[in-house]
# Entry
Amino acid sequence: MHTYKYPRPSVTVDIVVYGYDGGKQLKMLLIERGGEPFKGHWALPGGFVDLNEDLETAALRELEEETGVKDLFVEQLFTYGAVQRDPRGRVISIAYFSLVNLQDHPAKASSDATKAEWFLLDELPDLAFDHSEIIKKANERLAAKVRYQPIGFELLPAEFTLGELQQLYETVLNVESFNKRNFRTRILRTGILEEVGRQQNVAHRPAVLYKFNQEAYQQLAEQRDGGVLRRALDFEI
Amino acid sequence: MHTYKYPRPSVTVDIVVYGYDGGKQLKMLLIERGGEPFKGHWALPGGFVDLNEDLETAALRELEEETGVKDLFVEQLFTYGAVQRDPRGRVISIAYFSLVNLQDHPAKASSDATKAEWFLLDELPDLAFDHSEIIKKANERLAAKVRYQPIGFELLPAEFTLGELQQLYETVLNVESFNKRNFRTRILRTGILEEVGRQQNVAHRPAVLYKFNQEAYQQLAEQRDGGVLRRALDFEI
DNA sequence: CTACCTTTGTTTAAATTTTAAACTAACCAT
DNA sequence: ATGGTTAGTTTAAAATTTAAACAAAGGTAG
# Structure
């Protein structure tokens, strides 16, 4: 038992993980809750923060415990602390956000969660707590992020074509399709792509395969104003 | 006394408030700590969250208690939870962020704080806890925010000239001076300004006075992609 | 009252960038 | 060989941006 002079809230983390498999829609990783409250409901992976671990560490630990998904980068999304958001009492939750390649991150339930599954974004079930609100914010963040940071590094296979990269952008931005010629020239001029070969065995002119140039990608990701990239994508969006 | 089955962290809020008075630099509101730890050191206003108040409410309450500053809009910045960030034990702090007009928000110390003062941004003293890190993040957020949201509503007097608005942008972005003619046309075409009269008694051609068009301003502030505004400012930055 | 100073505000032509049409290339299947 | 399909290039017209030159509206000094 632990005793304090003043009352204290519980603190949890929740993790919003987007997965991509090359298709026209993103997926999201959810768990089915094995305990009360909301037993049997779907929810974001997450749980209580240990006193001797940092917040991000807690997020990664809970995610792996509940879904088996690991080896990913997370970024902080928002902290939810409405007085009544959890029926167990005052619980403040720091939400995290991540993008992964679906092939490398299968979901397998364990411990607290009875199931862990990838859901298509427009087929999400009803969610426990205020998790719908968290996901709404995450969607906004993702749409905003795309505009000032490069995406793809975590979502695509190591080598990919410009067509695949464009498909990803169209998926994330939920746009029909933007001009292929211009996407090409603009993305290439950012310098984040490096040619690594050509497609094999396709029934048409083989596309050039690219990989991300780590250094240029990193630089774009860090410059928070996103000038080059924004200008590169500021069309048809 | 309050007893729990598992240990719990303390939860605080910290508030980064920027003030503007028409000059070439922004100011920031700090307090001198009246109690341990870091007694006598300067720090961001802030304090413990009550269990029956929302996070934002706690931020506004602590700010008013410590500095007398009230009636402002805050937005969440980031949550700091490193294990060793506070010598008193595990303390997780949700940082908030705000912009105010200095004329309307004088600082007057009270309660926990012995002093409350506005500091020029490049003359900040050494700070308690990890507050320097918080301010660094706030500065980044401010610079990023300017690019996709209109600013000025909270920072300028009700009526102002285009010159004053431009001065503000130059101050916030920390740029020398950008093209006056283009600033004019770009800002005007966003439709966020409304003419309300002319300057009086100035030793030169009097400038037109503007106020923000609430509706148009609000709309720009909400559309998270910031298209119009970004294009309006994407020059010389 | 006049000349002049300062800052505001407008017009516009040249430079740059964007857009998308037309075209060319590469591969497989039949 | 021919056709189907997707990849990739060239380029001229359209749109936008940039900044030079200029005009306007006050106050002030003599």
